[in-house]
């Protein structure tokens, strides 16, 4: 099949590789310039986006922050109903959908104006996170307020956070953060990876521990139930990730949805090394009608993001580590690569992270 991917960053490239590996033809669109790019190449093709759309049997995306012209392309050649999926890019609609489908999530309220934000903050005794309704990622466009620590609401906070629509969400005292990455095909079959633990620094994913965390067993079933109800409702086709907070311990542990990413996801990058079929393969299988594997053969893996640095100190890695470099200019806080390493020891995985983090991650101030 001919596959067109909107976006040519690292996720687009990894999707492109998976498409080619299965014998499909794949082109990427640089969504900033509308140039059409081959996979793993720097020079655009002499083809415009209209011709590429015409060429494609199916269109998919690496990110869901799309301009209206790109939304129109998806409406014509995307397998899932585009409007359903794009509703997830708005935090208020995303939270409303969780409520509608009874997917447990943190208590929240929407605000439309600075005054409404101020009223929300005045009413609550809880520590909260304020999130802009649109456009935030890697912890950007988020603010925190704790009435116990600071009885005044800083005017700067109101000014910045109240500049656009958003939500006020209770700060969750979680045991850990986990995510479920999986895929659904057009027949409604579902194929999910095991839940993995995600550790964030300043709102950015630092590392993922797959098969290295003892999670109460019932959580996998709860997560997959949420996944099925959500993707069935959306009639979603492809790979999708749900980020959760785990609250409580042992048999009383439960999941709260933090957010949903209707695409391949950073917390699924470990599957490139630790699974017989990775998250990009699953996406391509779903959108081209190939069956899912009967079982995913996974191995314990740690994934460390490389953030904001122009090179990584290779001599420190274990020799069997598996590095991915995205070919992007380094800026503090920008993800430029990741390193996967298979180990069955949580202690060794955490020691690897501790040792590598100082040279591998430069966050913004
Ligand atoms: P992403 O890059 O994953 O899309 P994002 O910018 O959309 O991130 P969130 O996932 O909403 O942001 O938040 C980033 C991180 O901030 C979370 O993973 C979590 O560590 C912390 N955080 C967000 N909301 C809350 C909350 N309500 N309670 C506690 N921590 C939170
Ligand atoms: Mg997000
Ligand atoms: Mg997130």
From TrEMBL:
Which InterPro entries did the record assign?
Answer: ATP-grasp, ATP-grasp_carboxylate-amine, ATP_grasp_subdomain_1, PreATP-grasp_dom_sf, PurK_C, Rudment_hybrid_motif
Domain named ATP-grasp is located at 95-288
> Gene3D superfamilies, per this entry?
3.40.50.20, ATP-grasp fold, A domain, ATP-grasp fold, B domain
Q: What are the UniProt keywords, alphabetically?
A: ATP-binding, Nucleotide-binding, Purine biosynthesis
Protein name (record): Phosphoribosylaminoimidazole carboxylase
Organism annotation: Aliidiomarina sedimenti
């Amino acid at each position: 099949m001919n596959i067109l991917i909107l976006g040519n960053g690292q996720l687009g490239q990894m999707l492109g590789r998976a498409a080619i590996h299965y014998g499909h033809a794949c082109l990427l669109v640089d969504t900033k310039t509308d140039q059409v790019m081959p996979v793993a190449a720097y020079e655009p093709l002499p083809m415009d986006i209209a011709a590429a759309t015409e060429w494609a049997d199916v269109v998919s995306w690496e990110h869901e922050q799309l301009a209206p012209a790109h939304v129109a392309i998806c409406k014509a050649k995307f397998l899932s109903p585009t409007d359903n999926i794009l509703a997830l890019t708005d935090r208020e609609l995303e939270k409303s959908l969780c409520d509608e489908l009874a997917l447990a999530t943190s208590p929240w309220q929407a605000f439309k104006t600075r005054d409404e934000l101020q009223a929300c903050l005045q009413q609550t005794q809880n520590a909260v996170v304020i999130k802009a309704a649109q456009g935030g990622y890697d912890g950007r466009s988020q603010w925190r307020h704790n009435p116990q620590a600071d009885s005044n609401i800083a005017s700067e906070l109101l000014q910045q956070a109240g500049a656009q629509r958003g939500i006020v969400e209770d700060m969750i005292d979680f045991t850990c953060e986990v995510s479920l990455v999986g895929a659904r095909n057009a027949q409604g079959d579902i194929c999910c990876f095991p839940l993995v633990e995600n550790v964030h620094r300043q709102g950015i994913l630092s590392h993922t521990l797959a098969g290295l965390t003892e999670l109460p067993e019932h959580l996998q079933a709860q997560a997959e139930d949420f996944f099925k109800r959500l993707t069935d409702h959306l009639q979603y086709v492809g790979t999708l990730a749900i980020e959760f907070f785990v609250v409580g311990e042992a048999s009383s542990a439960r999941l709260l949805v933090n957010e949903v990413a209707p695409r391949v996801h950073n917390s699924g990058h470990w599957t490139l090394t630790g699974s017989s079929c990775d998250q990009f393969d699953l996406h391509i299988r779903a959108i081209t009608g190939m069956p899912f594997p009967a079982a995913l053969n996974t191995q314990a893996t740690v994934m460390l993001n490389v953030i904001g640095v122009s090179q990584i100190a290779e001599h420190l890695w274990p020799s069997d580590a598996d590095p991915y470099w995205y070919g992007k200019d380094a800026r503090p806080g920008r993800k430029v690569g990741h390193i996967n390493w298979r180990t069955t020891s949580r202690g060794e995985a955490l020691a690897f992270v501790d040792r590598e983090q100082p040279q591998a991650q430069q966050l913004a101030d």
